Amino acid sequence: MMKKLQESVVLRLGREVKQGQDSGMMTYDECHTHDVARLRASASSGEDVRHGTATVRPRMEDEPDGPPEDEKKSGPAPEVERHLFEQRKVLIFGGVNDRMARDITGRLLALAGESDRPIDVYVNSPGGHVESGDTIHDMIRFVDSVAPVNIIGTGWVASAGALIFAAGRPERRLCLPNTRFLLHQPMGGVRGPATDIDIEAREIIKMRERLNRLFARETGQPYEKVARDTDRNYWMSAKEAVEYGLVGRIISSAADLEQA
């Protein structure tokens, strides 16, 4: 009896596969190959795919989740790390992600607990995850109530990196002469049921409005101007960033920093 049932199931599945091939439908193997390709494409685009539910990881720049493997092994040596901590200096270099947010949060809290002397935060970043940028932004504000924080831009301060930079007090937002700044709207990939996609799309729009208001408040620019500027990539030189209100002062030496 069981053997006949198994044979019946096998025959039925065989007919369904044959019908699928004749009608142009994908077979199981083809579906599997398609799903693997879709998941790989989603992973490479930053999407988070979970059983058909619309999910999104908003970013402010299309950058990797973290530095390449060779860069992960080339961080400051322990001796350098010790000297940086003793001198109360924090480096925010590379893509903004959860790992960076946790590391910077720990450093800031440790420094604030050790002394109320100023902390120097150096930023050179292409951007990354909005929420991770929010975490670092809020933590700088949190720690600044205990120990003043100087934000020094160098290289490029782009996207979520600019969000972090804007955490400093206007007079303590500094940059080196050749620093470039980039403001733009957040972006993210999403897939899933239409209703969930609509929810996530509205969340990204709300996030964009929140960030525009934050930059308007920190720069003194009208909200409408910031909204227009960030609708596309808005690049600024160090001098232009000062005129925009994002940077308080351009410095070129350690002595200039001591005046902050």
From TrEMBL:
Chief location bin: cytoplasm
The record lists the catalysed reaction(s) as:
Hydrolysis of proteins to small peptides in the presence of ATP and magnesium. alpha-casein is the usual test substrate. In the absence of ATP, only oligopeptides shorter than five residues are hydrolyzed (such as succinyl-Leu-Tyr-|-NHMec, and Leu-Tyr-Leu-|-Tyr-Trp, in which cleavage of the -Tyr-|-Leu- and -Tyr-|-Trp bonds also occurs)
Catalytic-site annotation from UniProt: 159, 184
Entries under Pfam families matching the protein = CLP_protease (PF00574)
Q: List cellular component terms (GO).
A: cytoplasm; endopeptidase Clp complex
Q: Where in the cell is it found?
A: Cytoplasm
Similarity annotation: Belongs to the peptidase S14 family.
What is the protein name stated in its UniProt record?
ATP-dependent Clp protease proteolytic subunit
Per the UniProt record, the lineage of the source organism begins with: Bacteria, Pseudomonadati, Pseudomonadota, Alphaproteobacteria, Acetobacterales
